[in-house]
Amino acid sequence: MGVSNYDYPEDEFDVGDDDGPVPVGVHRAQVPRWRSWVPLLAIIVIVPALAWGAVTLFLNGSGGSGSSDAVSSSQPAQGGQAGGNKNADKNADSADNKAGAATAKPSASASASGNVDFTTRVTVSNGTNTEGLAKGASEKLTNGGFTAVEVIPGIYEGEEPAKSTIYFSTPEARSAAEEIGKRLGVSNVTEGTEENTQGAPIAVILRDDYKPQ
How far apart are CA 211 and CA 213, in angstroms? Predict the structure, then answer.
């Protein structure tokens, strides 16, 4: 298109070199192609990361209470199991102690079965000329668990009984008197009077038929 055929009025861009300086337009450097992909890449990377973080926080918030409940619920069970083990150990120790006591002191089992009161006062008299007979019998009873055994000094002067006898003054003392008879090997166990029991619940009179065991 020639200038002569240009239908528009001239402006500053139509000025030639002779008429003045050539107008200079605004020139920008070409934008690199990779910069146009930056926003898209940012969206592709950041959005999934944010979504993943939100899901993780949600799962941690809901799963934390469940795990704590599981821990709290397991603790009583473990505590109960530990308590059960402790009780079992205590029961075992108690059983061992009872077995040991029964072995060391046979009188304990006799006490449980025959209601033997080992604190019952017992007097032992020697109706023979054998010295130390009453003392030996009293020591045997003391070692067997009786705690109130007394030796009557001297020789028993009564004519009765004719053979070794164990007298008891009350029905409540019968079990203990029978136990003493078993310990000393005296089979004659009978209820006596205040005279032959010498004021004690149980009185042991030893004669020549008594054989220390």
Answer: 6
